[in-house]
Design brief:
By secondary structure, the chain is mainly beta. The chain contains no helices and eight strands.
Length: 110
Amino acid sequence: MSYFEKARSSRPLRTQTLNYAGSGTAISSGFSAQTYQLRVWSQVAGYWSIAESTGVTLPTTAPPSGTQQPAQVAIGANLAGEYITVSPSLLFAFSSTSTSSGFVSVTEMI
């Protein structure tokens, strides 16, 4: 895929609301064929990853200091939407060290 510059003027295609129940991994359904960018907002601080299948499970503990895990990226709670570049048909996965419940809003942008 060539470089895809994120544009704040992109329009939303569809939004998936993932319910996080305080444990485990919340996973979206596959992104549509037009989706190359997501806007993500979370009520709960945690970690996200882009997955190829629903069988992914993210660790529920923070990575040890100095450990590199490029597939996991931290996301803060209640911050302005974060933009993420993706490819069609992939999935968004979210997990947290928090036992609080909340939701993660995953909006496909075109």
